[in-house]
Design brief:
The chain is α+β, with helices and mostly antiparallel strands and 284 residues long. The protein has 3 domains: 61 residues, no CATH class; 73 residues, SH3 Domains (SH3 type barrels); 122 residues, Orthogonal Bundle (Lysozyme), CATH 1.10.530.10. 35% of the residues lie in helices and 23% in strands. The protein contains 9 helices and 12 strands. A hairpin with a 5-residue loop joins strand 10 and strand 11.
Length: 284
């Protein structure tokens, strides 16, 4: 067997190997990193490293660093899926890359149907949005098998920012009703009276809670949970899990809520009835 035939066989073997293993080509004092196809002689391969004193840059076609990045991505995948449907548990940012600093391709509303492609070891999962067909990354922990209860846009007579914030408050109340027992209509109505549901000011504390010296919260959702815990602090006995909004707000006020009971109760009832906030209560 001639040297030329042997060299060609080694080239073919190296080409096949390069599909799976990135390696380094040593060219004198210069080192080229990547995946290459060689056309030189006197080639030696040891543990995926190829060296040859006779190889020049004109004899090697270098595949860019994207090949190495793809290899790293493959090693980061913990599980792949052929057909796996999930739903967003909250509003999620669909990102271009699996990092919180990556560009946002689309904002996915709560309840968005997605198809999981694979999950990475770091918790990021690549998904395809079923409706638009866009692909990107979200955190796997914010996806669920069952479609969450979603407040429909047609519910209530609120509009704009008030409607958007009210929907977020109602969602927290609905998801946590079994724990705290506060009606979404009551929670939203109180936020309406205190801060215009965040239109007067919005630091997450839409209820003017004094439990943290009237300080703010990092989001409306966290502020709402603080409000729900407040109603369940033992002072408003009988108010939690009361399914009639008039009775619930009456028990809250006469339990010691820091407002004039009669005036405040009438305001809450007026807001609930005027804006049809009981439409939120049907989701509990």
């Amino acid at each position: 067997m001639t040297k030329k035939i042997i060299a060609n066989m080694l080239i073919i073997a190296l080409f096949i190997t390069s599909t799976f293993y990135p390696f380094v080509v040593a060219e004198g004092a210069k080192t080229i990193t990547g995946e290459v196809v060689l056309a030189g002689l006197d080639i030696s391969i040891v543990h995926g490293v190829t060296t040859s004193s006779s190889i020049t840059s004109t004899q090697a076609a270098i595949v860019t660093k994207s090949a190495i990045e793809k290899s790293a991505t493959k090693s980061a995948i913990s599980k792949k899926y052929k057909y796996d449907i999930r739903y967003t548990k909250c509003t999620l940012n669909l990102r271009k890359k699996p990092t919180a600093k990556s560009k946002i391709k689309k904002v996915l509303p709560i309840g968005t149907k997605v198809k999981r492609i694979y999950v990475r070891a770091d918790g990021w999962t690549k998904v395809k949005v079923k409706v638009k067909g866009k692909k990107g990354f979200v955190k796997n922990k914010y996806l669920s098998k069952k479609r969450p209860k979603v407040v429909k846009k047609s519910d209530t007579k609120l509009k704009g920012v008030r409607k958007a914030n009210a929907d977020r408050i109602a969602k927290v109340c609905i998801d946590n009703y079994k724990t705290y027992g506060v009606l979404p209509s009551v929670s939203v109505a109180q936020a309406f009276i205190e801060t215009g549901i965040g239109t007067a000011y919005n630091n997450g504390n839409l209820w003017g809670l004094c439990s943290n010296n009237f300080g703010g919260y990092s989001s409306i959702e966290i502020g709402c949970l603080a409000y729900l815990r407040c109603i369940n602090n033992g002072y408003y006995e009988g108010a939690p899990f009361e399914k009639d909004y008039q009775t619930q707000i009456t028990k809250i006020l006469y339990g010691g809520y820091c407002e004039n009971p009669a005036d405040y109760i009438s305001k809450v009832i007026w807001v609930i009835q005027t804006y049809d906030l009981t439409d939120y209560d049907k989701y509990i």
